[in-house]
Amino acid sequence: MKKDHSSQADSAQVQGRRSSGFNRMRSKLSFERLVEMGNKMGLENPLFVCHEGAAKATTRIGGKEYINFSTYDYLDINTHPELTEAVTEAAKMYGTSAGASRLVGGERPPHRALERAIADLYQVDDCIIYVSGHAANVSTLGFMFGARDAIFHDGLAHNSLVQGAFLSGATRYSYNHNDCDSLEEMLREKRDQHKHAIIVTEGLFSMDGNIPDLPRLIALKKKYDCMLLVDEAHSLGVLGPTGRGVREYFGIDPTEVDMWMSTLSKSMCGCGGFIAGSKEIIDFLKLGSPGFVFSVGMPPVIAAACKKALDIMLREPERVHKLQHISQYFLKYAQSKGLDTGAAQGYAVVPVIVGNSMVAGFLAQALFRRGVFAMPITFPAVKEGTARLRFFISAAHTEEHVRTALDAVVEEIPHAQAIVDAYVQAHQNDA
Length: 431
Ligand SMILES: Cc1ncc(COP(=O)(O)O)c(C=O)c1O
Prior knowledge:
Helix content: 40-55%
Strand content: 5-15%
Distance between the termini: 46 Å
Bound molecules: pyridoxal-5'-phosphate
Number of strands: 13
Oligomer: single chain
Structural class: alpha/beta
CATH architecture of the largest domain: 3-Layer(aba) Sandwich
Number of domains: 2
Shape: globular
């Protein structure tokens, strides 16, 4: 009997399409799972909220005013009239696009002016700016290191640092968060097996708001013949009497660190990232790092904005002092109310750890209803069981803002916990 294979063939084709198309190329993303779970429990999706104005200490959403603890405007410089003026001038002169990669298409004066200002800030030879902070880390580590090398990074290092390490093909060693003993043990055991090696840390950790032991990291880098990269995304403008970052906090000679990295999207009120260091390193990156060579240059308007923000930071250290004062106030007030602030040291980033991801979600929702905007941070951004609300503090926050927010947190945690407990209780026999 002649067999009709057509329907089998059709269904095989459909099957093939199903598995090769996007539809379910991979398992659901962690955030997607959380949002779905939250929906089932009656939680509104907290992602992609649309603000009606600039990212500042207060914000407008849906016509309502909120105290905003999800801003990176640490020094209250975003929307400063001098920035607007600098951007307007640059736009008139150079337009809004760099047009091409700087290597081939050429650059504009704001590019070099910003790079020079950052190199001077760190008292190092030179600087390279990339179009994003994430790209700066991925491209720098991915390009500089290779299969025979080793990258030793803090266990809580930002995703961009870890992705850079993956891309490089180097062996990746993740040491216990902020634990130099754990790092030294790895270096002692593994360093000799590799050609080049680098230690990678942050100047102020973005999830926990704590500071690394930079003097010890420098000693280890020397002892084990490594390079050292410090990501100052959250420490530039935040640490040290004039905001010069973690090296000013410790009083360290900046040339002791091989690469100073930071994003320009936080205290510098723009977008992009930089590496500052020796002429040899910067020349090497400018001629080879793919995120620079094969990517468009930073828009000159953004370079002009960042340069102006840096000028303002250096001219007005009182902004740094205000930020440090209000951050310390936040930490102490939270602790006085019995909240778990983890390892935070009271510099611009303070988490309130609640443990369960759904409790963090419901707590954020309750605060939002009370006019406080603070984002929940859940797995995979932090370890399971350490979900939190992360508060970014700005120099423009007042003590009253802090008390209003934290008093609301204290009142709402039991309610958020009760919603989750009730759900678990009602569904404990579900398959
Ligand atoms: C520590 C750290 N490094 C790098 C980045 C990436 O910077 P950008 O957002 O400018 O791409 C971030 C972003 O939040 C960060 O927190």
